[in-house]
What does this fold into?
Amino acid sequence: MAAKIGRNDPCWCGSGRKYKACHEEFDRKIETIKNQKHKVPTHDMIKTPEQVAMIKESAKVNVECLDVVADKIAIGMSTEDINDIINEVCKKYGAIPAPLNYEGFPKSVCTSINDAVCHGIPSKDEILCDGDIINVDCSTILNGYFSDSSRMFMLGNVTEADKKLVQTVKECVELGLEQVKPWGFLGDMGQAVHDHAKANGYSVVREIGGHGVGVEFHEEPWVSYCTRRGTDILMAPGMMFTIEPMVNAGSHEIFIDEDNNWTVYTEDGSNSAQWEIQVLVTEDGHEVISW
Ligand code: MF3
Ligand code: CO
It folds into this structure.
């Protein structure tokens, strides 16, 4: 915890209210749970209402990006065409696609087809084919605030197996979301995601997960979907993170493309699906910020 604040001092959250009338009880509650040997959030993981409002504006652009992709995506298009859509919508609002130049990522969105797990790089040479399943992972910076979500799209005649994979991973995210509430643990969410994937015969990628988001692109905590109920960090009001499990039809093992050092594929060539939502922990549950 930060240095001791007087009860009549302004609260650390920036509300302008006295500490005793604002987060004093919150801090005491967290201290108790920390003393029970649980991992607990630090103050910088708690968003202020002002920050939440700014992040929601960013998320509006992010959701519109994906809505336009949903509207236009079709067999015969290239993944570069999807990249163009993202750039166009961002430009309209003076927003910046967060992936562009992020640690050297060369494009504005990630497009991951079939056995690509994540971080696929859009290209004019990559054409969407009948039967493809694709994840479009979109992240937006607006006025310095970050939003991040992804959706799956199915093109034409998709196999029953792939339809089930895509649908099941969506359910994983929904079941995980149900577990997001204050004073629970992140592992409650993680286990709900994992159990549903496993019950359907799928595996969950271990090495790559979700993250805190909003003021930065990737913040603490790191979010796993291979955790158990009652473990991992405490969830407290004001925390914001992504639920974005990558689920493989076959083995959980993955490798990174040696040519571009970005695109992640399943080791066994089985297909993979991912949905991503950005979630805020509220006083009485959760609010979905981007989807
Ligand atoms: N939404 C992805 C994530 O949360 C985006 C990665 S952007 C990239 O990690 F540049 F790293 F590919
Ligand atoms: Co993300």
